Every structure is written in C-alpha cells, then in structure tokens.
Known about the structure:
Blueprint: H1 17-21, E1 26-28, E2 38-42, H2 44-49, H3 54-57, H4 60-67, E3 78-80, E4 84-86, E5 89-91, E6 99-106, E7 112-118, H5 135-150, E8 157-169, E9 173-183, H6 189-197, H7 201-215, H8 225-247, E10 249-250, E11 272-273, H9 297-316, H10 320-332, H11 334-349, H12 358-375, H13 379-390, H14 395-398, H15 404-415, H16 421-427, H17 435-446, H18 451-460
Antiparallel strand pairs: 1-3, 2-8, 4-5, 6-7, 7-9, 8-9, 10-11
Amino acid sequence: MSVAPDTSQTRVILDDRFVRELPEMAVRWQAEPAPAPQLLVLNDALAEELGLDSAWLRSADGLGLLVGTSVPAGAHPVAQAYSGHQFGNLSPRLGDGRALLLGELHDRDGNERDLHLKGSGRTPFARGGDGLAAVGPMLREYLISEAMHSLGIPTTRSLAVVATGRPVQRETVLPGAVLARVASSHLRVGSFQYAALTGDLDLVRRLADHAIARHHPDAAQAENPYLALFDSVIAVQAALVAKWVLVGFVHGVMNTDNTTISGETIDYGPCAFMEAYNPETVFSSIDQWGRYAYGNQPAIIGWNMARFAETLLPLLAEDSDQAIALAQASLSGFRDRYESAWSTGMRAKVGLPEDIPDEVVAGLVGQLHDQLAQSRVDYTSFFRQLARAARGDTEPARGLFVDLAGFDDWLGRWLELGPDADQMDRVNPLYIPRNHLVEEALAAATAGDTAPMEQLLAAISAPYVERPGLQRYAEPAPDDFVNYRTFCGT
C-alpha cells in the first residue's frame, strides 16, 4: 500500500533513503484515518530545529502530516522490518507493528533525521495487535524523551502528540493518539538480526554500509570498516547506558530491537526513574524476573552487543575463527568502556577533583551506594543535598540515613577531599519526571486537561536550575505511592 501524495503540501521535504537503499527491510504502507485529529502537544523548539513551521504544523494540513494521513509528494511511508531478542528469546519477525517511517528530513544543521509515527495503525508486522496507541502512553514517551534530552542523554525526540478521535480498547476504552518522533535513524541491533536471518550476506553488508554512512562515518576509513562499526556501536552504547545509570533511569525493556546503532535511547514503554536507591528496582509489569532491573542494565547491553556481533561475523573476516576472535576482542573491552564512562560521571556527581586517585573515589562511591541502599534514600534529591553538605549545611543529607554514625564517617572522609558543590549541581538534576507526577499528568491529559503535563514539562526542561514555585517537582513520591508498575501501552 502507498499513501496518495498531497501535491499541495510543499512545506516539508521528506527523502525515502532507507527504503531506496534497503527495500528488503521495509513495506510501503499508509496510516489509518484519524477521524478527529486534535493537537495535544507540539514541541516548538524541536520544530524550529528541524526547520518546520510550528504554525503550519498546527493547521489541518500540518496535523495530517503528524498523523500520517497527508504526506509530501515524493514521500513513501514504510513499516520497517526487524527481529529481536525479547527478554532473551529470539523473535525472527517483529517490525513496526503500529509505526511508520514517513521519511528522512534534514535539520537546520544539515543532519539527517527520521520522522516517524507511533500508533498510526496496523501494519503487516502487527502480529494480531490493533496498531493503535492511547493518549497516555504517547504522552509518556513525549515527557520522558524530552526529559532525557534536557538531561543531556542521547535520545529520540518527540515532535508532537495528536489525539485521533478514535477510541482504543485496552483494559478499558481509552482515547487514541499518534506520537510523531524524530531520531537519527531507527536502525537497531534487531535490524541486523533480521538481515542476518534472511541469509542474504549482501543485505547485511548494505545495511552495515548504510549504518556506517549515517552514524559512524569514520569507520569507513578503517582497515576493517565493519569491525570499526562494531567498536563504534559498543562505545556509544556503553556511554549511553552509563548515563542512564548515573541519573537512575530504568529503561524497562532492553530487547535487542530497542538497542539503536546510533546510541540514542528509543522506545519509552515501561520506563521510569528510580527513587529509593535499589539496584534491583524494576517497574515493568512484564519483567517478572528482573532481567532489565536498574542494576542489570550494563550487563544486558553487553549481552545485546554480543548478539550484534553475531550478525556481523561474516563481514569481519572470511575465516569464521578469525571473525569470532576479532568480535571477542572488541567485546572484551566493553566493560572497561562502560566502567570508564560511569566512573567519570560518578566522580562528577560527588564533586571530587581529578587529582583524587581513582581507587579512593571508587572506594567512597561503593560505600556510599551501600548506605543509600540500606536507608532507601531518594537517589536524585540526595546528590543535591550532598552539594549542600559540601557548602557546610550537612543536616539535610544526614537526616536521610538510618546508620547515622556510618554516614557521618563517610561524610567526614568525603569532605576532607574538598568536593566542588557547584560542579555537583551542574551534573545532578533537581527535577526529573517523577513517577507520581507523570501519572498525575497523564491521567489529567487523558481526561482532557493538559495543564499538569505542561507544568511538568516546564520543570524538567531545565533540570539543573532551581526555580521558585517548583518544590513539589523536586520531592520524592508520597509514602502512599508504592509498588509502582508501568505498562508498554499495547
């Protein structure tokens, strides 16, 4: 199927590079009609970055683009094919069951970006689902992805959420919506798994060349470009997951189809931010065994990189033993890359200067995490309180711990090292999308009131800057907000 182009629409130019270069990995398709589209939220700053006219996006034609029912001439929306290990089990054919790649555009800096829809209707990859999305989960992705962007964490971005006027049946009937999101691309480890499972080595090679050109162009100049691609993806994913862990983010569904080649965070389903520090924290209603718990995320991304390596082996070397040896050598460096990124970030979080030996910092940080877990201290607010302690006001931080003598001992040794409170405030957020506030905002928006969401967005858009009137956005959840669970929205 294909979308009939709107020849009067000249405000957006969309390329179809992905489907031209990799036609075996996409099915041309069209979005389902939206009976009564209504804009719920538009990211004006992102629209400007993309060179799009916000006023036009708010028009009937603009809304048509945002729900996929009206696309520019020459655009060819597609549902992308990919495989994936879901909770460790391989699904050979997943793909965009409720999503469409409208095409690629170039932002004001000349960077190529995907314009992609989520919740736009069933595709050939729908696997029995309805292909639709409800207002709440789409606004969740908007909120969390924009929070991640403000925190400086690589991520897909949310351009808009449009209510469709179509009801969606879940446990109850909910209002439907489409999310328009932007990414450097939607290439995933699962994309490579799909290509490899076809047995077509030429397809795997073309996919790898496409990934190199879009995301890791320096790899093209390497002696072994495909090994350089693998090393580059390892590097960006190690850095990405370190950033997640440093801010207490739990992705919730780290399947290989949710692991990007670009190193951007993608697919904000059952995600959430940890409050009380606990490495075993799980929010996803379907992660009953804790596979994707907060503390497991580094190991899981390493596992996903091993699955990526398997798809590249025929490209790494003609001799299979040599290919495996090359892949294993690269994989062996993953942990060091992750630990380096995490340690550098944690040193900044506790404000210790570069001249303090790594082993001293590591010892202090390990002891601190033990005490945070013992006392179930709120992870985000603690580091802001610790910065106050560095300025001489120790009581707010001390009051958080059960073992006061133990924390006092730690605090004294830390203060002797001369921590930099200003540095700490630059890297430790004050405002995150706390789970109770997210649920409050989504419930209100589903009922037609977007004010709580707009207020939450305003707070998290500048997460490091304390502002009057936003105290509730910096506070942990109330005591009666317990056993929080999130859902994927399908």
